Amino acid sequence: MSLTTMLATMLPGVGRTCLLFFLTAVLSLILGIFVMFLRQSRIKPVAAVTKIYISVMRGTPLMLQLLVWYFGPFYLFGWSIRGYRFTAILLGFVFNYAAYFAEIYRSGMGSVPVGQNEAAQVLGYSKGQAFIKIILPQVVKRILPAVTNEVITLVKDTSLAFALAYQDVFSLAKQISASQTSFMPFLIAGIFYYIMNYAVAFAMDRCEKALSYYTI
To answer: What structural domains and CATH numbers belong to the chain?
Structure first.
């Protein structure tokens, strides 16, 4: 198989990997905000359950979680899992990464001195205005490096979707390598992941520079 043919065969996998990455990044970043607020809830049972959820997500392998999300509905409830593969993969990734982002958000919120919020209210800001104009910019700048690391890890973790026979770029590289007895597909996949991670790091670095005028 020529290099051009390999690239053409792996191209659909590139699109599937990018789709999984984009949806997971957006949904988990948003869900992580809600998880953070639940974790900090004054209702103790809610906070306790959320803490257990975060502990389980962070304490068990992502691949195992993907298998549970995919096979769980069938073994537990007898539901058909036909056509459910991508949904199960997406749910597994989103709920896993939301737990990590929630803890990053929580640490960022906790690192801002309480006195700043109180001072803002003395100056006439409402709680909402103080949060948006004073607290939030500082939180974003503080958590951006940690968020960047998690997003870069997500790019690489998308390869775990092969466990559920999802035809991403890594899965196709394995198939082509096995059929052609060639190392080239893995090299192509490695270059793709590197370029994608470089693009993510570059974008996040631009965001950090854009926020550099905030003094922490």
So the answer is: 3-210 (1.10.3720.10)
pLDDT along the chain (216 residues), means of 10: 82 91 95 92 93 95 94 85 88 96 90 74 75 79 90 93 87 87 89 93 86 57
d(CA 172, CA 74): 27
Residue-level pLDDT at 216: 45
Tally the C-alpha atoms within 13 A of residue 202's C-alpha that lie toward its C-beta: 6
Contact call for residues 157 and 210 (beta carbons, < 8 A): no
DSSP labels, 133-187: IIIHHHHHHHHHHHHHHHHHHHHHHGGGGGGGT---HHHHHHHHHHHHT-SHHHH
State the Cα–Cα distance between residues 172 and 105, nearest whole angstrom.
Answer: 36
Q: Phi, psi at residue 212, to the nearest 5°? A: -70, -15
Sign of CA dihedral 164, 21, 50, 84: negative
Distance CA 81, CA 107 (A): 38
Q: How far is CA 212 from CA 187, 202, 206, 216, in A?
A: 37, 15, 10, 9
* Lookup: tokens for 87: 């949904």
